[in-house]
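Team,

Forwarding the record for the chain on the shared tracking sheet. I've put the sequence and predicted structure together so nobody has to dig through attachments.
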Amino acid sequence: MNKTMLPPSGGPRADFALIAGWVTPGARVLDLGCGDGSLLAYLRDARGADGYGVDISDADILACTQKGISAIQMNLEEGLSIFGDDSFDYVILSQTLQTVMHVEGLLQEILRVGKQGIVTFPNFSYWHRRWQIMMGHMPVSEDLPYQWFNTPNIHLCTIKDFDAFCGSRSIRVLERAVLTGGRPVALLPNLLGSLAVYRLSRLA
């Protein structure tokens, strides 16, 4: 799955560090679209987290195994029926939301299986992407590195779109952070923010 943001020099990826700050020590974590297991390995080392990764790629499952990460090969589009309700403290969907066909169903499953969900996605309304479209091209960047003809991204959205989605689906936004170049963005996040990071739960 697509986890392509480059790390700041001399430290962990900013989105990894942000997610780790939200994860309680020793938590049970499920990482959907886990890629090579780098996030889970970081959470294991930084927070003592334990859990599983899920990915469809043979190469990524092998990479997880080499990092000592337990990983399950499965298609997220088929749901999470193998996991019971509240099986995990956190279910993470990091830079994978935009590649999923059935977004609403998967988010419902995330909040069934996990006590909380953590979702990150590239903000399609970021000013540089707007500029590329104004210049007549589909946006290409570090966190959207594909060309229009080979992209796996099928459901790109903006921060405002996702806020409205959560509000209309009884999903509680516990925290939201927005990053650009690994730095937090507070002013005009829908325009100036490149990556959105959300901590979610079900409404009581």
